[in-house]
Design brief:
Layout lengths: L1 E9 L9 E8 L4 E9 L3 H20 L4 H11 L11 E9 L3 E7 L5 E4 L2 E3 L4 E4 L7 E8 L5 E5 L1 H4 L13 H15 L5 H15 L9 E9 L3 E6 L8 H9 L4 E5 L1 H11 L3 E3 L12 E3 L2 E5 L2 H13 L6 H10 L3 E6 L19 H14 L4 E6 L1
Parallel strand pairs: 12-13, 12-17, 13-16, 17-18
Antiparallel strand pairs: 1-11, 2-3, 3-4, 4-5, 5-9, 6-7, 6-10, 8-9, 10-11, 14-15, 15-16
Helix pairs in contact: 1-2, 6-7, 8-9, 8-10
Amino acid sequence: MFIDIACSQKKKYNQNAYGDYFSSNRFPNMNRVVAVLSDGLGSGIKANILACMTATMLEKFMENHADIEKSCEIIMNSLPVCKVRGISYATFSAIDCYEDGKAKIVEEGNPDFIWVRGGEVLKPVPQIIPSKTFKNRRMKVYNITLEKYDRIIFCSDGATQVAMGTKRYPLGLERSGLVKIILEKLKENQNIASKELSDYLIHQIELIAPNRELKDDTSIVSIYCRDPRETLIFTGPPYHQEKDNFWARTFMDFKGKKAIAGGTTANIISREMNIPVYADLSVNAGKLPGLSKMEGVDLVTEGILTLTKTLEYLESGKTENNAAKTLMDFILDSDVINFLVGAQMNKAHYDPNLPIEIEIRKNVIKQMKKVLEEKYLKKVNVQFI
């Protein structure tokens, strides 16, 4: 099964930096996901630095196969205590999860995680490990087995303490209130993606806050165990022209979503499969070349210009309403992205009169693979043909 993970965050009102920090990594060769959410004491830059330090250290420990319990204990015992408040400078929640369902969760100071299966909240019993350095600090360790369609929710205390002191929520929303919101949303849409769910929860928390002004940094980490959504993108003509028919059939026989990036590529598949391709005038492509339509293909775009702009959007997160935004959304709606990249040279891409941002197709795809894996935690396979 695929581990779909996402984090949504909101800063404390009137702050320029997040006091919470989320760090995660996916290891495709090991079918493993590691993620940490840390909440720094207070807010602003100081809290951000403390949370970043905690999350980064813990993630690196786990990445290097250090025992998660020992790793967390080292950090727990290393973090200083605020002399004024008498509490830790940072709290954390961490998960080390494999696609066969085996997972270890470690928490210190953050609200207890929420585990939903079949519309019910499960209540696992943790192993309690007290700090050897600080008497009031203890770590909770859970060894659990996840099943397909399970949900795991982590949050910082900004989520559970929102609206504290108000008439409706004298003690804040509390964990029980957050659970209620989660279950209602899952009842409405049981297949909701992790990112959509975490965004929704953050929005609901913001609505609860008086004047919609959050008094603390708020983070929601959503994990969903499900079947992977696969996509195949074909771009560029194959190196050996005599294999055009083979690759065209390979593309059309793919069971997931399919996209073509390149006019020449689209024409090859159209010719080999005897399927007409025509301009799609119903969609605004923006300043980029327009989109096309082909029966049996979900998306058809122009090649190198659109791919380059899509890469730019993926890296920056800033988009415009055009064909590249359409392609980016198409890609991000998948968990496993497969690229078939034709290796036949296109001399047009070396024209010195063309804009400098036009890069060789191979390099664009390689960079796209890197950003999709590192920033968006996608599985990416690239095959040059």
